[in-house]
């Protein structure tokens, strides 16, 4: 079945679903408008959407529909899908970056704390952790985070959650709707730390996003990414894939009323480059790679990647 036929079938099924006020339903496929968009110059270039091959011009709309559908249940589903382990990964990720600490003098930073750009961070899960760490661990009340996300519904969820934090309505936390592959509103050499957690696998052009990360980071600034990756134990990998492809879409259907979105998410994990391939993409963007370039978490279910913008590359 073609990807277009699949989405039409989903749309037809969604229209027949009985809705009740107690169970609000956000139609995953109703907002997929890519098929109706005017032809663009890159329409002939193909990419993947899960296991389906689609035109590049269609992917942004299709991914946007997924995250609009799952925004309100996103973090709850992460708890269920990972059995809560994603919280431990995120805590470790933030501790390893140590936001708000003093940076070596050869890596110049703002005298008013770190300027952090958290990409695809709509719900605020990483941003709130980084601000908590800077404030409570390093006694830094100046470090600030801009949460950037291409999806307005994810940003709305983050803004709602920020109300319960000490950073609400302060200059330490801001939100920006932006495409990570092109961010003209972010100046060159202006960011101390660029983070992207469980988001880059959904980008249409990952290399373009890495190039843009390099542009906005200051000399000596750090690119840090945590993403699902390749398990390095064959037996555990078999168990993990059975869980991913059987249980996760079912949980999505039962909890979020949306099986198709979570089917896409597990397929997008499978299609993401290996640790070594992604490390080489980061290097290609111009970053220096410390050590082997990545740290596996839980035998490679997820991996942390880092790159440093060389000081000598500054204009």
Automatic annotation (TrEMBL):
It catalyses: a 2-methoxy-6-(all-trans-polyprenyl)benzene-1,4-diol + S-adenosyl-L-methionine = a 5-methoxy-2-methyl-3-(all-trans-polyprenyl)benzene-1,4-diol + S-adenosyl-L-homocysteine + H(+). Gene3D superfamilies: Vaccinia Virus protein VP39 (3.40.50.150). Keywords: Membrane, Methyltransferase, Mitochondrion, Mitochondrion inner membrane, S-adenosyl-L-methionine, Transferase, Ubiquinone, Ubiquinone biosynthesis. Pfam families: Ubie_methyltran. InterPro entries: SAM-dependent_MTases_sf, UbiE/COQ5_MeTrFase, UbiE/COQ5_MeTrFase_CS. Pathway: Cofactor biosynthesis; ubiquinone biosynthesis. CDD domains: AdoMet_MTases. GO terms for molecular function: 2-methoxy-6-polyprenyl-1,4-benzoquinol methyltransferase activity. The keyword S-adenosyl-L-methionine applies. It is a peripheral membrane protein. GO terms for biological process: methylation. Its EC number is 2.1.1.201. Its main location: mitochondrion. It is found in: Mitochondrion inner membrane. GO terms for cellular component: extrinsic component of mitochondrial inner membrane. S-adenosyl-L-methionine binds at residues 123, 149, 179-180. It is an enzyme of class 2 (transferase). The keyword Mitochondrion applies. Component of a multi-subunit COQ enzyme complex, composed of at least COQ3, COQ4, COQ5, COQ6, COQ7 and COQ9. Methyltransferase required for the conversion of 2-polyprenyl-6-methoxy-1,4-benzoquinol (DDMQH2) to 2-polyprenyl-3-methyl-6-methoxy-1,4-benzoquinol (DMQH2). Belongs to the class I-like SAM-binding methyltransferase superfamily. MenG/UbiE family. PANTHER family: 2-METHOXY-6-POLYPRENYL-1,4-BENZOQUINOL METHYLASE, MITOCHONDRIAL (PTHR43591:SF24), METHYLTRANSFERASE (PTHR43591). This is 2-methoxy-6-polyprenyl-1,4-benzoquinol methylase, mitochondrial. It comes from Aspergillus sclerotialis. The lineage of its organism: Eukaryota, Fungi, Dikarya, Ascomycota, Pezizomycotina.
């Amino acid at each position: 079945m073609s990807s277009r036929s699949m989405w039409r079938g989903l749309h037809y099924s969604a229209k027949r679903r009985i809705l009740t006020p107690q169970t609000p339903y956000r139609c995953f496929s109703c907002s997929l408008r890519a098929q109706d968009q005017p032809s663009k110059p890159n329409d002939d270039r193909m990419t993947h959407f899960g296991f389906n091959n689609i035109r590049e011009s269609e992917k942004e709309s299709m991914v946007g529909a997924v995250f609009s559908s799952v925004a309100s249940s996103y973090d709850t589903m992460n708890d269920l899908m990972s059995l809560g382990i994603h919280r431990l990964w995120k805590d470790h990720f933030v501790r390893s970056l140590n936001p708000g600490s003093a940076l070596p003098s050869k890596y110049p930073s703002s005298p008013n704390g770190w300027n952090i750009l958290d990409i695809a961070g709509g719900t605020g899960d990483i941003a709130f952790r980084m601000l908590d760490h800077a404030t409570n661990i390093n006694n830094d009340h100046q470090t600030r985070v801009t949460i950037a996300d291409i999806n307005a519904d994810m940003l709305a969820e983050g803004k709602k959650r920020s109300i319960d934090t000490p950073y609400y309505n302060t200059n330490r936390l801001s939100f920006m709707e932006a495409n990570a592959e092109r961010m003209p509103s972010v100046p060159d050499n202006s960011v101390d730390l660029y983070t992207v957690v469980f988001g880059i696998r959904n980008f249409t052009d990952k290399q373009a996003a890495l190039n843009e990360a390099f542009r906005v980071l200051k000399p000596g600034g750090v690119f840090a990414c945590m993403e699902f990756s390749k398990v390095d134990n064959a037996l555990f990998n078999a168990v993990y894939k059975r869980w991913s492809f059987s249980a996760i879409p079912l949980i999505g259907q039962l909890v979020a009323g949306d099986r198709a979105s979570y089917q896409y998410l597990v397929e997008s994990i499978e299609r993401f480059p290996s640790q070594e391939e992604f490390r080489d993409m980061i290097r290609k963007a111009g970053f220096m790679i410390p050590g082997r370039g990545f740290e596996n978490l839980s035998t490679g279910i997820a991996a942390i990647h880092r790159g440093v913008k060389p000081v000598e590359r500054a204009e």
